[in-house]
Amino acid sequence: MKKIIYYSNTNESYNIAKYISEKTGYELVDIMSLKDYSFEFIFLVIPVHYQNVPKEIKSIIKKIKANRAIVIATYGKMSYGNVLYEIDNKYLRANIVCASYVPVKHAYIKNDKKFSDFNKLDEIINMIDKEDDATITRKNKNIFANFFPIIRHRMGVRIYKTDKCINCGKCNLLCKNIKNGKVNNRCNRCLKCYYNCPNGGLDFKLSFFMQKYLEKKKKDKFIIYK
Ligand SMILES: Cc1cc2nc3c(=O)[nH]c(=O)nc-3n(C[C@H](O)[C@H](O)[C@H](O)COP(=O)(O)O)c2cc1C
Questions:
Q1: 34-64: per-residue pLDDT in tens?
Q2: What is the rounded CA–CA span in Å between residue 151 and residue 144?
Q3: Ligand 1 binding pocket includes 53 (Cβ within 6 Å)
Q4: pTM for the whole structure
Q5: Ligand 1 center to residue 32 CA distance, Å?
Q6: HSE of 82 in the Cβ direction (CA atoms, 13 Å)?
Q7: Which H or E element spans position 205?
Q8: Which of 114, 120, 123, 201 is most buried (most C-beta within 10 Å)?
Q9: CB of 104 closer than 6 angstroms to any ligand 1 atom
Q10: Ligand 1 pocket, 6 CB below 6 A?
């Protein structure tokens, strides 16, 4: 079984996974709907959250077993921590033959450019038949990466309902941490609700510190480990 498995809240990783699926013909599967966990080959496409593997999917990735895998981590041009090294050594039971960090639109920057260099992914897709493991170098994470990351994001991003909300209930279906446009205190600020609201019924504001952090010079590196 060969699949493209993705996790995506604001559709950047999804669009990359979809491009790969169209090129390869392999089925596209949302990681949240996985039923089987054994594969011959997978493409895994996920975002970087707080310089880490998103908390919601860590335990799911641990269950996956594949003979070979290609892993793509999308990141918002700030910092990707050590995500690919950790997936290789801590989370995914697979021989990773190629891995890549792909810079995409940051969920928290409204006017950031969406990822559009899809042709650049062809070099990664061409690794599909590669047998030997990729050499993924270990990087030093930012010292703040593991310093209460979720609390930092909760304080840094405020999600609120706008007067365009028509109480359609779509956000309630997307996430258990929002009810009719109001988020509870378990919300991780992934902004899936904001990006998928059909009516512009939600908006978000960044704290001063989050704004300053996001104004930092951006990395725009597209990195491929083979
Ligand atoms: C909760 C959260 C944490 C994030 N942390 C980082 C980060 O540490 N470094 C970075 O460069 N981008 C970060 N981003 C930006 C995401 O990596 C970017 O929005 C994501 O790759 C988009 O993927 P998606 O549309 O598939 O969800 C973060 C985004 C969110 C929502």
A1: 999 999 999 999 999 989 999 999 999 999 9
A2: 12
A3: no
A4: 0.95
A5: 18
A6: 16
A7: strand 202-206
A8: 201
A9: yes
A10: no
